[in-house]
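Module 6 notes. Inverse folding takes a fixed backbone as the condition and produces residue identities as the prediction. Think of it as a translation problem where the source language is geometry and the target language is the twenty amino acids. Below is one complete input and output pair. Work through it position by position during the lab.
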């Protein structure tokens, strides 16, 4: 049992951030509990050994599959009886073809088809919009995997095929181990599930609480995804909390140990989500616009979760738009396909490029980099003074950022304006 001091200290402060995530290249799997092994990757893959074969939880990306397979075979080469997907994102399902055996049963929550179909129909769009955050990590990681397996040729992304699905719960008995699969549709996807080992009081939660545990989850992603409902997310946190796990095995990095510490973390996360939801709804009913609420809503001290992956302000906007949609009732122009960019050249002609640059620099001197960006982006992309303003403004924002997605985006914009 964790001490009171350990329980009160938010775990995110002592855990790695998203920048530490790497593709699978480890030389061996790591034992984290009796009969439970981890092969780390972009999303960790887990091995459960039993007296009647193996159970694997998540398979990584396609190019990671050979590493996970080799790591798990070195622990136990018995048949793979089951593969369980904790969610349908590509970094959980892509290594399936490398990891499964001819007799393997693949298991997922019943909404998996919707996520498979989304992934397939939007693959070019989502890949392009994610590249800025992961391209360097992937390039280095793929090289490490090629060295690890001794081949330049790596498998492509598997198309998931599921043999057994369920709506709410499913119990599997394998070689004397009992596994309870529990739907948590408020996770990163509506097909999210956790694997509960009741006899050991271990919960494998994947990315139910976001890729970086202890941080505010994204209710909608920067790369583009379906909105995630805040109340459903809260209910999913509660469902896992009610299990009273003694070991919480997350999708990345080390497990969280101790019933008291886990309870404290999940309580804190639940309360943070509830606070953001309730304050956003109250602000909407009071007639406040979304940007005002993004500025005003902050977390109280007893809801101290990190903002290294999601951010409170982003989730405020996600809650607002999930309830209210795309029309913000701010301008008639929202109803039509003519944006402000259509009159940017008119503004430049009327105000003069030099005057706009001067005013943008004044905003920078007053430490208003976002105001400066608004003005500089009115000018042509190749305007040298505007590019200089954009570089300085993005450098300032980057220096103040501790968020993975925000920092990746700002670095990409700096590269474009170099």
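Target side of the pair, the amino acids:
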């Amino acid at each position: 049992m964790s001490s009171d001091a350990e329980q009160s200290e938010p775990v995110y402060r002592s855990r790695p951030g998203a920048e530490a995530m790497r593709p699978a290249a480890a030389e061996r799997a790591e034992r984290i509990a009796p009969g439970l092994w981890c092969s780390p990757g972009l999303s960790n893959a887990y091995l459960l050994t039993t007296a009647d074969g193996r159970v694997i939880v998540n398979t990584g990306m396609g190019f990671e599959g050979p590493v996970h397979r080799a790591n798990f075979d070195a622990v136990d080469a018995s048949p793979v009886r089951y593969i369980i997907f904790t969610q349908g994102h590509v970094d959980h399902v892509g290594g399936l073809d490398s990891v499964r055996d001819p007799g393997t049963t693949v298991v997922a929550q019943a909404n998996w088809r919707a996520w498979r179909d989304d992934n397939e129909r939007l693959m070019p769009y989502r890949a392009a919009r994610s590249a800025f955050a992961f391209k360097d990590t992937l390039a280095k990681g793929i090289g490490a995997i090629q060295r690890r397996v001794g081949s330049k040729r790596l498998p492509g992304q598997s198309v998931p095929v599921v043999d057994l699905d369920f709506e709410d719960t499913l119990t599997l008995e394998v070689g004397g181990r009992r596994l309870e699969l529990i739907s948590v549709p408020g996770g990163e996807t509506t097909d999210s599930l956790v694997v509960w080992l009741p006899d050991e009081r271990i919960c494998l939660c994947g990315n139910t609480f976001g890729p970086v545990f202890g941080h505010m989850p994204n209710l909608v992603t920067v790369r583009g995804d379906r909105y995630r409902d805040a109340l459903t997310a809260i209910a999913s946190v509660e469902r896992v909390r009610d299990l009273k796990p003694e070991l919480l095995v997350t999708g990345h990095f080390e497990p969280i140990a101790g019933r008291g510490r886990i309870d404290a973390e999940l309580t804190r996360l639940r309360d943070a989500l509830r606070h953001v939801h309730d304050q956003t709804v109250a602000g909407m009913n009071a007639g406040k616009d979304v940007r005002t609420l993004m500025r005003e809503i902050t977390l109280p001290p007893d809801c101290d979760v990190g903002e290294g992956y999601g951010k409170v302000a982003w989730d405020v906007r996600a809650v607002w738009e999930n309830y209210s949609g795309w029309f913000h009732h701010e301008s008639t122009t929202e109803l039509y396909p003519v944006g402000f960019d259509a009159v940017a050249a008119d503004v430049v002609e009327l105000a003069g490029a030099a005057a706009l640059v001067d005013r943008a620099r004044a905003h920078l001197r007053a430490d208003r980099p976002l105001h400066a960006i608004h003005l500089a982006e009115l000018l042509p992309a190749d305007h040298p003074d505007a590019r200089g303003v954009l570089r300085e403004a993005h450098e300032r924002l980057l220096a103040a950022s501790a968020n993975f997605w925000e920092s990746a985006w700002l670095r990409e914009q700096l590269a474009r304006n170099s």
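Reference fact for the lab report: The chain has three domains: 4-121+142-269, 274-324, 334-417.
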